[in-house]
Amino acid sequence: MSTENIRTVMDILAATYHGRGSVELGDPYKVLTATVISQRTREEQTTAVSNRVFARYPDINSLAGADEAELFPLLVGSQYPETKAPRLIAMAKILRDKHGGQVPNDIDALLDLPGVGRKTANCVLIYAFEREALCVDIHCHRISNRLGWVETQTPDQTEKALEKVMPRDLWAGSNRLFLQHGRAICLPGIPKCSECPVREWCEYGQDPKTAKR
Question: Mean pLDDT in the chain?
């Protein structure tokens, strides 16, 4: 897959899907918190749950002092609120006590926080600090493999492989586009290749042996 073709695919996806993602909030505290909430949760639910949490806990200090029994019902609607509630409070306490009440812009420091993996950390770097990073979730992993850009087994492997083939200026916005495309067309099971705007550049879509509709 050439750089030119990668740019073509990303340009088409950008022209097809619009809007702002549920974690594209600018403020580092909100980006980090919303991204943790978003784990295994749909966009619309992430937004609704995040808004409830921010209305009650508008900053790191207030979240660090939260009572788990009060936070839990605000998280209902996201997946695994019983896990996210204690993690969010623990995360906020670390930010308050070890980072002066600020979200760090260093990936290693972010990865030390409870509930923060590489996808979450990279989302924070992108949307809170405008840093060049690749936020690879299961949609990005699946679609980039189907396109033929990478041949990997896990999202972490995909992140490293995409760094070598995707131009850096395309990294930041790629997660939202892959997420939207993955939910609308390039589904986890059998994708809707007949409706795909980038099928012409997709190895999976062009292969007569792959399951498609």
Answer: 95
